[in-house]
């Protein structure tokens, strides 16, 4: 049985043109991008000076030399404005194609027009781009695979290591906003929270919502979706919780809204690149 797709959160398809487009993104985001060639793609993050998450997108190079920023879970305007604020004397022009082109994780019905990266694969995700790419992926499926999303796990409250995006942080590249803070977190092993998958009874609660143990706050429920056809009814979600709340299996269970969770499963952390 499949679950109902989530409401459309919007998607991003930005085309960056000019000789400095790739070097600009390399300079202001967390991943190394200068070695990308035509047809290549890589996920990268844009953080504030504290290393907190602002944006996440896939960088893709097409065969015509244009650089694309793609994501399926947030509109393009805020990211376009963020990029534009960092363009000074760079040869970079930002074209927001988000209203014209959809981005999703299921192959489009027809091939996209020339000059548009029709299929982009990055690790365990595949994005497709085109006028027909409008179907929104299931929220429950996103939660099942533990994939962070904008407005849920990708928010300023968290850093990349807390929400399973450490693999898109490169520790050996040059300076970028948030690098010092992220470097300290890894050097001193001071990441104190992690992403977990949870299940609970009844219908999915509203998010975000506090996760507690014996009445003490220990984290935040960031995503939740009802499991269709479950008897009795149940829901599945993602939560960012303190590591020390997961260290002991004894004691009261974690709870959301006063209801004890049925289960918790830690999502394996992804290691940053380098060092």
Would you write up a description of this structure?
By secondary structure, the protein is mainly beta. It has helices at 21-28, 77-85, 139-145, 179-187; strands at 12-17, 41-47, 53-61, 67-71, 93-96, 102-104, 119-122, 125-130, 193-201, 209-213, 216-227, 234-242, 254-256, 259-260, 263-266. The strands form 3 sheets. The protein has a 7-stranded antiparallel beta sheet with strand order 14-13-10-11-12-9-15. It is globular. The termini are far apart.
Features:
single chain; 275 residues; mainly beta; 7-stranded antiparallel β-sheet; 5-stranded antiparallel β-sheet; 4 helices; globular; disordered N terminus
Number of strands: 15
Gross geometry: globular
Return residue spans where pLDDT drops below 50 for at least 5 consecutive residues.
1-6, 107-111
Strand order in space, largest sheet: 14-13-10-11-12-9-15
Major beta sheet, specifics? 7 strands, antiparallel
Helix content: 10-25%
Summed up, the helix count is 4
**What's the end-to-end separation, in Å?**
44 Å
Question: Average pLDDT value?
Answer: 88
Cα-atom radius of gyration: 19 Å
Order of helices and strands: EHEEEHEEEEHHEEEEEEE
Structural class: mainly beta
Tell me which oligomeric state these chains represent.
Answer: single chain
Q: What is the beta-strand fraction?
A: 25-35%
Write the layout of secondary structure elements.
Elements: E1 12-17, H1 21-28, E2 41-47, E3 53-61, E4 67-71, H2 77-85, E5 93-96, E6 102-104, E7 119-122, E8 125-130, H3 139-145, H4 179-187, E9 193-201, E10 209-213, E11 216-227, E12 234-242, E13 254-256, E14 259-260, E15 263-266
Antiparallel strand pairs: 1-4, 1-5, 2-3, 3-4, 6-8, 7-8, 9-12, 9-15, 10-11, 10-13, 11-12, 13-14
């Amino acid at each position: 049985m499949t679950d109902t797709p989530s409401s459309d959160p919007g998607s991003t398809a930005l085309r960056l043109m000019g000789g400095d487009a790739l070097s600009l993104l390399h300079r202001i985001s967390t991943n190394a991008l200068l070695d990308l060639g035509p047809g290549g793609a890589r996920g990268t993050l844009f953080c504030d000076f504290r290393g907190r998450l602002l944006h996440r997108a896939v960088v893709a190079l097409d065969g015509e030399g244009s650089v694309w920023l793609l994501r399926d879970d947030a509109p393009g305007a805020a990211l376009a404005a963020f990029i534009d604020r960092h363009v000074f004397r760079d040869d970079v022009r930002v074209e927001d194609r988000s209203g014209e082109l959809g981005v999703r994780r299921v192959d489009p019905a027809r091939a996209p027009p020339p000059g548009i990266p029709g299929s982009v694969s990055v690790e365990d995700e595949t994005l497709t781009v085109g006028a027909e790419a409008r179907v929104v992926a299931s929220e429950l499926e996103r939660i099942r695979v533990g994939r962070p999303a904008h407005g849920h796990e990708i928010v300023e409250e968290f850093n990349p290591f807390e929400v399973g995006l450490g693999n898109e942080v490169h520790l050996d590249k040059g300076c970028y906003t948030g690098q010092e803070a992220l470097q300290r977190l890894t050097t001193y092993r001071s990441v104190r929270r992690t992403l977990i998958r949870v299940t609970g009874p009844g219908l999915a609660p509203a998010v975000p919502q506090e996760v507690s143990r014996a009445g003490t706050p220990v984290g935040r429920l960031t995503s939740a979706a009802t499991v269709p056809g479950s008897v009795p009814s149940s829901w599945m979600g993602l939560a960012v919780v303190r590591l020390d709340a997961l260290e002991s299996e004894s004691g009261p269970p974690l709870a959301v809204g006063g209801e004890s969770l049925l289960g918790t499963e830690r999502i394996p952390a992804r290691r940053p690149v380098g060092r």
